[in-house]
Amino acid sequence: MRGIKQYFIDNLGIICALAGMILFLYLWPATHNTFLTQTNIFNVLRQSSTNLMLACGMTLVIILGGIDLSVGSIIAMSGVLGAATVVWGGMPEIVGILVALLSGLLFGLFNGAIIALTNIPPFIVTLASMNVAKGIAYVYSGGKPIRCMTQAWKFLGAGYVGPVPTPVITMTIVFIVAIFILNRTRTGRHIYAVGGNNTAAQFSGINTAKVKFFVYSFSGLMAGLAGITIASRLYSGTCTSGDGAEMDAIAAVVVGGTSMAGGSGRLGGTLIGVLIIGILNNGLNLMGVNSDWQYIIKGAVILLAVYVDFLRSTRKAK
Amino acid sequence: MSEYLLEMRKINKSFPGVKALQDVELQLKAGEVHALLGENGAGKSTLIKVLGGIYHAEQGEILINGHPVEINNVSDARANGISIIHQELVLVPHMTVAENIYLGREIMGTFGIDGASMRREAQKMLDRFDLGIDAGGLLGNLSIAQQQMVEIVKAISFNCKILVMDEPTSSISDREVNALFDIMRNLTKQGVGIIYISHKMSELNEVCDRVTVLRDGQYVGTRVVSETPRDELIHMMVGRELSSYYVRDHVEDTEVVLRCEHIDDAKKKKKRVNDVSFEVKRGEIVGFAGLVGAGRSETMQCIFGLTPGFTGDVILDGAKLKINSPVDAMKAGIAMVPENRKVEGLYLVQSVRFNSTIEVLHEFINNLRVNHSREEEITQEYIDKMNTKTPSQNQTVGNLSGGNQQKVMIGRWLATKPKILILDEPTRGVDVGAKVEIYGIMNELTKQGVSIIMISSELPEIINMSDRVYVMHDGRLTGCIKWQDLSQEAIMKLATEEKSA
Question: For residue B53, what are the CA distances in angstroms to A111, B58, B65?
C-alpha cells in the first residue's frame, strides 16, 4: 500500500493532468457520448500499446543517460522483413514474427555494442542506425507495402483475446517485464548507477559496457515487437510505418518525469506519459480537430506537462 | 572614512524551516585576508551568497567604506566591487584564457569581437602576477591550479575591492598553494580585502590576518589569527571540546596481510606507476604521501583492478590474486574509496539508500525479489556506524554536506566487509567535526583487524594517523618512514627527490 501511495505522490502532477484530460473529454458535449465507452477505451489502449513498448525500452535507455533514435525505423524494417518472410518466403506466420523480433534485437545489439565499446555518443550511433534501418525497409520492400491478410498474421495487432485487443495484452506483459528488470534485478540498479555517474559505476566494479549493451538490445527488441504489432494491425509490412515513433516514445518518457540527464526516472511515470499522449491523440480525433493542428496542440501540451513537473520538482528541492 | 572596507551587520536569512543566518556579523579591513571558518552547514556559503546578491537577507545591512549599500543581484555586487570565486570553477574549457576573462563583456572592434585586443589586455593582467600563462591558450589545457589563477585574474579584472575565495585550495597541490598565497599577498598590498573560506587549519596561520567563526548560522566571534591557538578556534567551530584531534593507537609487528610486488602500469601510454612494491600489516594504517601526480592513486587503481593489464603481483593472506576488475578485488576483500567523491564516487541524484547499498545488491536482490527490509537494515547499519547525519534514507545524496557525503561513501565500501580498505584523500572538503569522526572510525576499524591504506596530501593527517608512510615521487617509491620518525621535512625530502635515499 505504501508503494501505491508513494506512486501517487511522485506522479501527482501528471496524474492530475491525465484526470483533467479525461474529465474534459467526458464533459465536452461533442465527445461526451463516445469517449468513455468500452470500445473507445480499448481503442485508446490499442493505439497506445506500441508506444508503451517503445517507451519501456526508451525509459531504460534514458535512465542510462542515453537516447535511442533508431526505434521508429526499426518498426518499419522489422514489419517489412516479417511480412516478406511470410508472403514471399512462404514461411508460417510465427517464423515471420520471430524474424521481425530478431531483426529488431540485432539492431539493438549493434547499437549497444558500438555505444558500449566506443565513445561515440548514443545520439550519433542511433541516428546512423536509424537511417540504415529505414534504408533496409525501403530497399527490401521496394517502397511498396507487403500485404499479408491471414488470420494468424492479424492476431497480434488486430486480434482479440475475449473482449481485450491482443496488443493491450502484449503491452501489459512488456510493461511488467520492464518493471521487473528495472526494479527487481541488480541490472536494474546498475542502469541507474551508470546513468547517474558512469565513472563512479566503474569504480564500483559495475561492468558498464555490459549494462549499456543490454539496455540498447532491449530497446531494439521492443522496437521489433512494436514493428510486428503494427504490421499485423495494418495487414502489411510498410516502409513508412513507425515514422516519428521514437519522438512519441521520448515524449512519453519525458512527460512521465524521467530526466534526460539520466540516473533517475520511473516506469510508472512513463505509463502515465503514454496514456496522456494516447488520450490526447484520441481526444483530438474525436473532437474532429484538423490533423495539422494536432501537431501544434500536442507540442504545446508536452511542453506544458514537462514545465509543470519542472516547477514542482524545483519547489521540492528548495 | 570607516575603519572597515566592508561591514555586514546583523544579517538574518531563513529558508523554509531553517534559520540559516541569525544576526551574523563580518568586518573586513582593506588589505587583510579574513578567514571565514565554520563546519559545513554553519552558514558560510549563505553569508557569501547574501554578499554576492544571490540571496536577499531579510534583515541586516551591508556597508562598504561606511556607506550602506543595497545588494539585490549579482550585478549590484559587482558594481560595489565584490567578486566571488566559487568552489567549483565556472570557466569554459573550450575557450581561450582571454575569452574566458572577457566572457560576457567582450571587447568589440569595427568587425565584431576584437580578439587581438582582448588577448593583449588579458596577457597584461596575467603578467602582472607573473603567472607564465598564455592568454591565447585553451583554458582546458591548464592545470586546475592555473585555471584557478585565471579565475582570480578574471575577478580582479572587474576592479574588485573585495574578493571572496571559497575553498580555493581544495584541489591543488602544496606547491601551487604557495603560488596562490603569493598572489593573495600581492593583492592585499594593493588594498584589496580578501574573505577566505577554507577547511584547512594549517593555512590560517600562513596567509590569514583575522578570522570570523560561524556555528549553526550564528556569529561566534572574530579573532586575530596569530594570537589565537588552534584549539580555541576548533572549540569555537564545533562548540564542544574535542578530546583530541587525531586518534591513533599505533600497531607494530603484526603479520603481513597484503604484499604488492613490482606493480607497474606498463601497458598504459602514459606511465604513472613504476615498479612499486610495498606491504601492509594487519590493523595498520599505511600512509601514501607525495605530490599531486606522484602516482599514488594510480598505484591503488592497479591493485583495485581499474587498470587492466597492469603487471606485478598482489598477494593477500599468502595467496596470489588475479585482479582484472574491481569485482575481483572486492571478492578478495579489497575496497577502495575514491579520491573525488562527486566524480568517481557518488550517484548524486540518487538517495542515501541507493548509494549505500550499490556494492552489496546481491545481499537483498535475488531471483526477481527485492528484500526491502534487508536493504533498509544495511543502510541503517552504516548510517549508524558512520554517524551520518541525514534526515532519512530517501534523502538525495547531492543535498548532504561534504562530510556526510564522504561518510555515505566510506560506509558503502565498509558494507563489502573489506580486509583492506583503501582511502584516497578521505577527508578532502570535509569539515572539522566530520574529520575527527572519520579518524575515529579509521582507528576503530584497525582494531577490528582491517588494514587501511590512506593516500593523503595533507601532511598533518599522514603524520598523525599512519603507522608507516610510503612516499612516492614520479611513479616510484622513494622511501618508507615509520611513525616514530615521521616529520614534514622527512616526507617532503623524499617526495621531491628523484632517487631513493
Answer: 48, 13, 18
Question: CB B348 to CB A183 under 8 A?
Answer: no
Sheet containing B256-264, strands listed edge to edge, beginning at the edge strand earlier in sequence: B276-281, B256-264, B311-316, B319-321
Each residue's pLDDT tens digit, A257-272:
888 888 989 999 999 9
Q: Where are the domains of chain B?
A: 6-238, 242-333+418-501, 347-417
Q: Does the distance separating the beta carbons of A204 and B368 come in below 8 Å?
A: no
Question: Would you state the CATH architecture of domain B6-238?
Answer: 3-Layer(aba) Sandwich (3.40)
Round to whole Å and give the CA distance between B409 and B358: 10
- Average pLDDT value for residue range B248-268: 87
Taken in order of first residue, the domains within chain A and their CATH numbers are 47-312 (1.10.3470)
pTM for the model stands at 0.81
Q: Are B6-238 and B242-333+418-501 in the same CATH fold?
A: yes
Say whether pLDDT at A225 is over 90: yes
Q: Is residue B41's pLDDT more than 90?
A: no
> Taking CB atoms and an 8 Å limit, are B348 and A197 in contact across chains?
yes
Backbone angles phi, psi at B298, to 5 degrees: -65, -40
* ipTM over the 0.90 cut-off: no
B370 neighbourhood in chain A, CB within 8 Å: 183-184
What top-level class would CATH report for the domain B242-333+418-501?
Answer: alpha beta
Instruction: Give the number of beta-carbon pairs within 8 Å between A and B.
Output: 68
Minimal Cα–Cα distance from B404 to chain A, Å?
Answer: 17
Residue of B nearest to A183 (CA): B370
